[in-house]
Task: structure prediction
Amino acid sequence: MSRFNRRRFLAGSLAAAAAGAVVPYVARGKDANGKLGVAVVGFRGRGGDHIGGYLGDQRTTILYLVDADEKVGQRGCETVAKKQGTKPKFVRDMREAFSDPAVDIVSTATPNHWHALCGVWAMQAGKDVYIEKPICHNVAEGSSLIAAAKKFGRMCQVGTQCRSHRAIREAVQFLSEGGIGEVKFARGLCYKRRKSIGAKGDFPIPAEIDFNLWSGPAAFSEPKVTRPQFHYDWHWQRLYGNGDSGNQGPHQTDIARWGLGIDSHPQSVISYGGRLGYQAERQDDNYVDAGDTANTQVSIYDYGDKCIVFETRGLSVDNSADEELNKLFDSREGGKIGVVFYGSEGYLVQRTYTDCVAYDKNMKVIKQFSGGGNHFGNFIDACVSRKYEELYADAREGHLSAGLSHLGNISYYLGESNKVSAEVAKRALADVKSRDDNAATLERTLRHLTDNGVDLSKYAISMGPLLKFDPEREVFPDNAQATAMVSREYREGFVCPTATQINQS
Result:
């Protein structure tokens, strides 16, 4: 395969992204010391763990740090130099790093709206990729990443690190062997306090940030944003993030799918909730939080003979669960992040990333599981062996798990203006196919809101529509508006090619 220079790659990648074409494979190889060269893209917060993962593995060396924030980038390079002994190069534009044949691995922890295009561009350039969860910002992008990994023969690992943790792996094996009998239903929980991100307004872009590159595939709103804190709080704005259903959620929905043995999208989805309670906290009925994703949300996913329910709660979560959940998590107060599997002979609960416990029907502990793992190590193993099947969390697994958050959000967004009372919500859920007690989950959710001072007569929840989904075609056959939300509009120069465009190139 022929190589091409940086200038040609930078120009070609822009044109290819806009046209939906793909860039030729770039030959690659280890450096003189036999190490794989790494470019880490985006390294505030979770990106620091990426850096630590590669610094801790003797098979890799960090050659580039990439970030749209100049201040963060230069500071990161100094930190890595002290630990690694050699200083990585800082660049703002990821395509500069991708054009270097010394780079073998691209590891990205950018905001969600960049995950897929970064991965596609990197694999087009012949790099293996580690993509933080969620693997994509929308459903269509996940399919693009699957296609790119196959087309270019690249390793593509997703950052759902529980796949590598001994506690979770052994617990899933226990389920598959009938440890709690027949299991058809799992409940994922994200009961995690999230305070208001501040009042919506017009706030300037920090001078050190290249906002054109930061925005990438998303709409461009120079010279301002609507949230007070530029970094991290993008999670709660749907243009860039996916709320906690797409932030924390992919960990729990991934474990739920894995434990239930589900290898497809659901057949239908319905979601309800809202961004509620911040008015009560501020004692200001007119307060408008800058976020536009739900802070309280329940999504129901029907797979025919199996079901997953995912619950998000962002207000105070003290005393927020029913007696059964308190017993299963061995906790009456505080947050609960995990998964409950309901079996014919008992329960299995994932309580932390490294702790699971199985109970019989009388809530007696019958088995416990503990232990972590090295997800970056598993990825590097596959990069060395060139065996895709060695990956614990490949692009398809990441796509199916992230897809749950996207499908739930589509239902919620379509029903956002459909404000309903408790009685109307109960009637709407009465005929929804589910292995859960829909009325009990609704009641528990509404109690969470009222316990946090939400006046439901003034601030009602939103009820999304029940949407049928075609798992193979990835469309909503009865709802064109919902199908349009499977993808997004891209800016010129930052278009993520579709799976079809990648396959046909």
Notes: Residues 395-414 form the longest helix (20 residues). The chain has a mean pLDDT of 93.
